[in-house]
Every structure is written in C-alpha cells, then in structure tokens.
Amino acid sequence: MSKLNETISRITDLNKEAIKKAQQHLDILTKPQGSLGILEDIVKQLAGITGNPMPKLGEKVVIIMAGDHGVVEEGVSAFPQEVTYQMVLNFLAGGAAINVLSRHAGAKIVCCDIGIAVDVKNPDLIIKKVRHGTNNMTKGPAMSRSEAIRAVEAGIEVAEEQIAKGATILATGDMGIGNTTPSSAILKVFTGCPIEKAVGRGTGLNDNGLARKAMVINRAIEINNPDPEDPIDVLSKVGGLEIAGLTGVILGSAAHKIPVVIDGFISTAAAMIAGKIEPKAINYMIASHVSEEPGHKLMLETLGLSPILHMKMRLGEGTGAALAFHIIDAATHVQSEMATFESAGVTTAPLTID
User: Fold this and answer.
1) What's the pTM?
2) What integer is the mean pLDDT of 114-130?
3) In this predicted model, what pLDDT tens digit does every residue of 132-161 receive, in sequence order?
4) 260 sits in which H/E element
5) Residue 147 phi/psi, 5° resolution?
6) Edge-to-edge strand order for the sheet containing 167-175?
C-alpha cells in the first residue's frame, strides 16, 4: 500500500462520545449554555479529534512548505521568483511576520523545500524537493501525476516527523511566488465559479495584471482540462508543489488525530484537495481566518468551515493560523479552568417571570 493510501485509510470520523462529554461539561460551567460561541465549538471539535473531553494543547508547530511556479513567466505576480528562496532564508533567520507571530503564540516553525527553483543550503531547512519548481501550466501540466503524489507524501512525512517529536497541533504555512494563481485555478475547477470570483491581486497586481492573471488561469484550465472528480489530477495539472505538500500535512494530521489549523488562500486550496481526497479530513481542519483574497470565502464555504478571525490579512506564511493559536488555546483553558455551577455555588435555574 502506498504512503498516501495508507494515510487515507487511517482517517476516521470524530469521536462522538468525547464530543458528547465535552458538551456536557460546557453546559455546567458558570455561564449561559452556548454563550462562548466559537470557543465552545473549538472545544467540542478538539474533543472529537483527540478523544479527550478536556483537550489540552502542547507543542504547536507551523509547517511552511516552499515551492516555485513556472507560471510566473506569464507575469502573474508583482514580485520576481527569487523572492521565494529569499523569504525562506528570512524565515530561517527569524525575521518574517510568521516568525514574530509564532514566537508570540509559543509556536515552533519548520520550513520545508518541496520545490524551490534553486537549491537553498541551510542546516535548518527540511529538504523534500520533488523538483525545481513546477512547469508553466499554460503550456501543459504543472507536474506529473507521480510528482504530485510524491509531494503529497512528502507533506505527510513532514507532519509525521513533527508529531513524533511531540507536536499536538499543526498549522499550515506557504511560500511560493505566483501561488495564488494555481490556488485560484483549483477553486475554479472544483466550484465552476466565474473567474472574477476566483482570482485576486495576490502580491499587489494592478488592474492590467489582474486581467492578465485571470486570462492565464482560464488558459491553463482550458489546455489541461483537469478532472474535478480526481483531486490528484487537478493538483498535478494546475496546482503547486507547496500546495501538494500542505495537502499531505493536512492528511497526515488527520490520520494521527491531530488538529490542523488552516491558514489563508493557498493553504485552503490544499485543504480543498485534501477534502476531495478524503472528506473525513475536513473534520480535523480549523479555519483560522478569512483572507482578503476574494476566492477564500468561497473556498471556506465549499468546505463548510467557519473562520475564527476576520483580520483583512492576505500575507500567507501561516500568519493567520499563528494568530488563531491564541483563540484555540483560550478555548481549552475555558474547558479546564472555569468553575461549574455546583463548585462555585451558583444557582443554575433561571428565574421564571410571568
């Protein structure tokens, strides 16, 4: 059995008994039932994932997958391709936004080269390179089917390595100049939405650049004709290596009953692929925020995920997920530290007013 198939076979439904017990405990805490809203939803989801009605978070890890895209030849990004490896070095040096926000959240960052166009030498960089960037998807498939599967399996391996080292919750992060283009293509293929709902300005395109990007996406889909019923076909034809790697991170997390916090537009493109490969994996996803990329809201709606935060962010890297760690942490503390009506000596029955 392949690594991918073996991982899929291990993804199960959530633990309903643990969810029931978590709900029972939430209902006897000193508050009106349901009054903590999304915090209570998070507690129940974590209980279902872990099997523990009183879930606690230990080590938090943001996994950043980095890869380049041949489609940047078409002028779909305001930044040149070399920024991918330059930003990876910035991550490793601790100077990027994700480093700041992860430190604040008490989270560790690991960065993986799954498809950077050049070879980056740094002892802290995980090397799982499948190839040196994707092909230009306007001229044929971004990668072969076997390369797409290898990249997904590489993501599974990275997730498993971090879980083996003690990670109790993972988050997805990305780096790859041009990667909003394949993400928009994935959204359009799976939903059939009009191109204007799928494409955004990415790193800051002007109106002409935005129009060119929409044309490029339409051309790539027309040339490759990806099958929306075959997520690996979609991934290989109009996807990206870092998107494939993040798909693996999500599937690997679900297989090991570890919650995975989904970041922004690129991460959610990976979540769409993972959810198509195994729909049960969606139960293990926590949507951190809704991005300013116009297609992100539609992605989340398609997956049935409700974002925790609305921050007008569009950076990627895992920044929204790092911020969401604080809310998820807060939810677990509510469940474990709040007094019950009985322990606090507070009357539970509401007054009846005629």
Assistant:
1) 0.97
2) 98
3) 999 999 999 999 999 999 999 999 999 999
4) strand 260-262
5) -65, -40
6) 126-127, 107-115, 59-67, 167-175, 260-262, 285-287
